[in-house]
């Protein structure tokens, strides 16, 4: 189990968060404004109210589009409904911003200019520990689904993606969404079926400590761009004991719960909640390599059963966790281009019109 405290100093964590967020923002700016080719900027920002979470607030959605902006549909002859990709950024659930993945959004739109990429600025820990980020991500899907007809979005082509912590969210969101839709309040919404899921170097098993994760891939600790102190900060910020799921009958913290550890979810739950197509990309120099690969292989074992039709992704060798977010300036990043390029091809199958 990761290092968590029943009563961590939240004020101290918040001060650390501000320092880490400043550095994270600086790196993101260098990537977005000084690394070629320059990625797109969001065309629209929308703030939506949180409804799933018990913690009231608002969630910012950054909308990326090609030449056709996202506008309410009028009485004019409608254009073909547009595919949607909801993306969740990384940062240990505690730092980072929805704009960090502008380069991924730009890559998607280069191949699918009619698509709408929505990057979700979920609320961060330590101010908002688990499960707020997960609930905000579910809220984003529900809001877009409710407004799909207004904005001419194709309900048959909703896909999700995420990086690192956002990869964990992308893998946990379908499970949390499935259970949320069982509630009577959503009875009139109809069934939401995602077309696909793409996770980049996600965490999938929170039952392992950071040391245990490093032990599964010894090169990770030597090559990582993330220090042990930062990992500790991430865990203490997000995993506030009071809000963590409990094991039935014992009341003990359950780190194997699928909201935290989607890689440990039961086969029946995964086949019920997951879309037909899933892709998981892992990094060769990452402490999350083994658990990510194991989950991809587990899903491959489900292929041909009920909904699970295609499982893609691969190991990006000789790169650390978060390698694609490092500013490349004029040098480019061939490993990133290869990973993003394959992920875009995965989207082609997910968004294919029957």
Automatic annotation (TrEMBL):
<dbReference type="GO" id="GO:0017000">
    <property type="term" value="P:antibiotic biosynthetic process"/>
</dbReference>
<dbReference type="Pfam" id="PF07859">
    <property type="entry name" value="Abhydrolase_3"/>
</dbReference>
<dbReference type="GO" id="GO:0016787">
    <property type="term" value="F:hydrolase activity"/>
</dbReference>
<feature type="domain" description="Alpha/beta hydrolase fold-3">
    <location>
        <begin position="85"/>
        <end position="323"/>
    </location>
</feature>
<dbReference type="InterPro" id="IPR050300">
    <property type="entry name" value="GDXG_lipolytic_enzyme"/>
</dbReference>
<dbReference type="GO" id="GO:0072330">
    <property type="term" value="P:monocarboxylic acid biosynthetic process"/>
</dbReference>
<protein>
    <recommendedName>
        <fullName>Alpha/beta hydrolase fold-3 domain-containing protein</fullName>
    </recommendedName>
</protein>
<keyword id="KW-0378">Hydrolase</keyword>
<dbReference type="InterPro" id="IPR029058">
    <property type="entry name" value="AB_hydrolase_fold"/>
</dbReference>
<dbReference type="InterPro" id="IPR013094">
    <property type="entry name" value="AB_hydrolase_3"/>
</dbReference>
